[in-house]
Design a protein that fits this description.
Helices cover 43% and strands 11% of the residues. With 470 residues, it is of the alpha/beta class. It folds into 2 domains: 7-268, no CATH class; 287-469, no CATH class.
Length: 470
């Protein structure tokens, strides 16, 4: 049965001692939604990363130099250099069901190459162009750029990880050989290779854009860049209700050298801050601790060897435990940051996933995220009968509730293995007409005898204090 532990717990190191190292403390086996910010590389004082940004820029500058020759052999070499596979065991980014990233494969490398050639033709050859391509290049965002940076800086990461392995006196190790050196690194608990440590000071949260106004947040590093980027796009996309697609943004930016130069120069002037792991303002880090509090506060009885007939009842109990904690035990606070701002859906999904896993970790139920714990339904399966499957999708009323319900309905209808499907909607907005609409849709589908997910509403709205409630 899968368990959730942070790196310090796996290696038997106190949280206080681990924190002193300055290393990111991931939940092993689950991708954490952070990325290596190139500009933070120039701010870190970690000795192994001194000159790291310069190394990255030099790497991309060599790609540009190859392309400027306009020779086919050089172009092939440039394409090869842009294929930057993910390094396993890092624990950040958008993995699937593991803590490995995705990297840059041959097809994405080809498209980046073509874009770089277009920019060179425009007279823009700053190597930082690869760092801003996430603004407009399809399937290329901070997470994939981060994977690329980690691959480029892998020897530095090996050196850093080896030092921490020694300092923390980790005995379970594995050797990694390169052409120049052999590194002794902490062995990954779930695979044959090592776990790679990263300084938390070079990490930022992977931003999620939900509207046109937030489109630049996908790669924005400060307010100035957001304003400049939005100002550039406004001339073409102002008044549109739907968010412009990356291909549309790319086409518009590549029409003018001035537009691209403005974006690159604005990016170059950014002074970003690393993520605040202590206070976790976006709810992306401390979800496991919140889940542990929930399970301790609202115990749920789960049989050690459940039968097929018991699976749905167990899932319902898990959902009700989650609902009770949020609605009656003050758990609603865990859905907001200290400024009472709603945390994103990735947090809610991680939170529920961890809660379900903690409730069921002693029984014969396999709980896994369909894609990953931050962006997809959670699957409950009997470990000895994978055809017995139940799906739970978590949504906030601040998100796309109707679309989620309709998508989840299709998943349920198309999945012959699913015994049942639940759509867990956490109400975090004062009112939600869309939620009311979804409940009507559910009622109509029930009357018509159509398959549909059962909608469970959890009231996660701010509750008045006991004194104010009197």
């Amino acid at each position: 049965m899968k368990t959730l532990k942070r790196a310090n717990e796996y290696f038997g190191i106190s949280e206080k001692s681990y924190k002193k190292t300055g290393a990111f403390n991931p939940v092993i086996g689950v991708d954490s939604l952070f990325f290596v910010d190139p500009l933070l590389l120039s701010k870190t004082k970690v000795p192994e990363f001194k000159g790291a940004l310069e190394e990255v820029r030099t790497y991309f500058a060599e790609v540009i130099t190859l392309l400027r020759t306009k020779k086919e052999t050089a172009r092939k070499l440039a394409h090869k250099r842009l294929i930057l596979r993910e390094a396993r065991g890092v624990g950040i980014g958008h993995g699937s069901e593991t803590d490995d990233g995705s990297g840059i494969g041959p097809e994405l490398a080809r498209r980046l190459l073509v874009t770089a050639e277009e920019l060179i033709e425009m007279g823009i050859s700053d190597p930082a162009i690869f760092e801003v391509m996430g603004l407009f290049e399809r399937d290329f965002g901070p997470d994939r750029l981060s994977d690329a940076l980690i691959r480029i800086l892998l020897k530095r990461i090996y050196s850093y990880s080896e030092r921490l392995t020694k300092e923390m006196k980790i005995k379970d190790t594995v050797s990694i050989k390169t052409y120049e050196k052999e590194y002794v690194l902490a062995k990954h608990p779930n695979k044959d290779g090592p776990i790679l440590f990263l300084p938390d000071g070079i990490l930022r949260a992977i931003p999620v854009a939900t509207s046109f106004d937030e489109i630049s947040v996908v790669a924005a590093f400060n307010e100035d860049l957001r304003k400049r980027f939005n100002a550039i796009l406004a001339a073409c996309f102002a008044g549109r209700k739907e968010r412009p697609t990356k291909p549309e943004i790319k086409e518009y930016l590549l029409e003018s050298k001035g537009r691209m130069q403005t974006v690159v120069s604005a990016y170059q002037s950014c002074v970003p801050n690393s993520y605040d792991f202590e206070n976790d303002p976006e709810g992306l880090h401390l979800w496991l601790e919140k889940a542990r509090e929930l399970v301790a506060t609202v115990p749920v009885s789960v049989p050690g060897k459940p039968k097929k007939a018991e699976l749905e009842s167990i899932v319902q109990n898990v959902i009700q435990g989650f609902k009770k904690f949020i609605e009656t035990k003050g758990g609603w606070r865990s859905l907001y940051n200290d400024s009472k701002e709603i945390l994103n859906e990735s947090h809610a999904r991680h939170f529920f996933y961890a809660t379900a896993l903690l409730y069921c970790q002693a029984c014969d139920i396999d709980i896994s995220p369909e894609s990953n714990a931050g962006s997809g339904p959670v699957d409950f399966k009997l470990s000895k009968g994978h055809s017995e499957k139940i799906i739970v999708e978590v949504k906030l009323t601040s998100g796309h509730v109707r679309q989620g319900y309709e998508k989840q309905t299709r998943i349920y209808e198309e999945s012959e293995e699913a015994l049942a499907s639940y759509y867990l909607v956490v109400q975090v907005t004062p009112k939600s007409k869309v939620l009311e609409e979804v409940l009507r849709m559910e009622e109509e589908e029930e009357k018509e005898g159509k398959k549909h997910p059962a909608v469970i509403v959890v009231d996660g709205r701010e509750k008045p204090s006991a004194s104010k409630a009197k």
